[in-house]
Amino acid sequence: MKTRIISFLFLLIPLFCLDSCKESYVYAPAPMPLQTRWAQDVTPGNAWPDYPRPQMERAEWLNLNGLWDFEISKKDDEETLFTRRILVPYPVESGLSGIGQMVGADSIVWYKRTVRIPSSWKNKDILLHFEASDWYTRVWVNGKPVGEHKGGYDPFSFNITHEVIPGKKCEILVSVWDPSNDGPQPRGKQVKEPKGIFYTPTSGIWQTVWMEPVDQTHLEDFRVITDIDRALVRINPIIAGDTEGLEVEATISGAGRDTIHEMISASGWSEIPVPDPHLWNPDDPFLYGLNLKLIRNGEILDEVHSYFGMRKISLGKDDKGFTRLMLNNEFVFQNGPLDQGFWPDGIYTPPTDEAMVYDLQAVKDMGFNMLRKHVKVENRRFYNWCDKMGILVWQDMPSTSGYVPPGKPDLDRPSEETQQFEQELVQMIKTKFNHPSIIMWVPFNEGWGQYNTAGIVDLVRSVDSTRLVNNTSGWQDRGVGDVIDLHHYPDPICPELEENRANVLGEFGGLGLYVEGHTWQEENWGYKKMGTKEDLLEQYRDFYDRIREMKDACGLSASIYTQITDVETETNGLMTYDRKVDKIGRSGLRKINRIR
Q1: pLDDT class for 5, splitting at 50, 70, 90?
Q2: For residues 205 and 133, what is the distance between their CA atoms, to the nearest angstrom?
Q3: How far is 395 from 398, CA to CA, in rounded Å?
């Protein structure tokens, strides 16, 4: 490799001194303007310790989160000295990483650590997983390159079997380059100079790093599609390795119901009847257990535990003739907040799993039944919790740079940029495909990076025909997809009725209330500033009185309020950025937000 990495200060600091410094290193967060109460729970020994892939869980795995050797170098530097340590999986810019430093587009961040491979993993293939690293990641094991990946939001893996020896230590070296808004890649609201509606960027590893042992023939992935009209589930195993003589056993379990055992195809789709299905919905998020085994000559080669929810999302007419968003063949008004997924202490990475669940529980406690995950993709545990808690999710694709002004045509983008966007879009859909909570894909937001809209809608449908597609949320509607989506601040309005698409209000509100002592900085803003909690409650109630009228009078099918929490200088959240103050109170909101 071009850049040579050494872990001692050659001719500058004696080797024994550097080793001694590392041994005596005591983790401490970097200074940050604000933090949540969960920040104090974060230590190198408990940094995101939970299994990261709940929909395909194996018994054996090794969590590599914790302290790694770290440094930032210029792209053309020939030597990099590991003089610091970072707490993985928190991004470089975050306080919880222990670094808290912006990274320029002319720089590369480096990670290194030594891992002992368990002796019990002998005769197994060994996979090294990254849940997410932003943006261009290269990996070496024991000095040999094992792979690279471009993408800031999707999980990726490398087979490192031939580079390691079970029972022995190995050295993992990682480099990440992230141009953020200086590059053409999807990056959502990350910018190097945060202000207004754009925020602190995330560079480097920002989700769990882990290993697992598998047989040479193993389940690489699988797809689940439920069909409530025919009372069955369709399963498609995706298998790595030799499939000759391979059998796949699927076991479906449900509370109080008979367990179903079926042998299914090792290649292609199989259908399994699910009699009298218990349907998944926000008020009753019932999940069936699913166990998949790969068997050859009576020997179990692989076994994973999963689940699925029997549910259907579609368009349909109500008794007034309005085209509606239908859940399980019935109209359910979808009401939720915009959720941007930023944290004052972890930036893109919640401080803990408990902190992430706290936000989701707030959504439920406030009476919402959905959320719009705004131009960010979360870790797979997030969607697992949405599945279990019964929260409908509209999932945005992170935006790229570039902007389409109102009334102007789509952008004409270079092929290398569109290829990268589409690659990351497809990976987002594939890696989140099995989550029943996700019911709509949103490829574009407000003209940001918008190009070839009709073609992108077709691409999304070619990958996933089971969910709805919102061609663009706000402003630059191109007449395709399943909904017409308007944004309007601060007060709500209703899109015009259409025969074949449902009308939704993709953003409104933004009522700002500054809470002293709980803001990122003193300078702050909201789309409409409120003087007191009482003013906020009165205006919020008035807005939702209008939403109810629009639901009945003009066929409004969904509304999304901006937003669940404050974010950096924005103070238009229902909670403060540190999650310590509910500005209105959950019980009061619940009465307002329950729209039937």
Answers
A1: very low
A2: 4
A3: 9
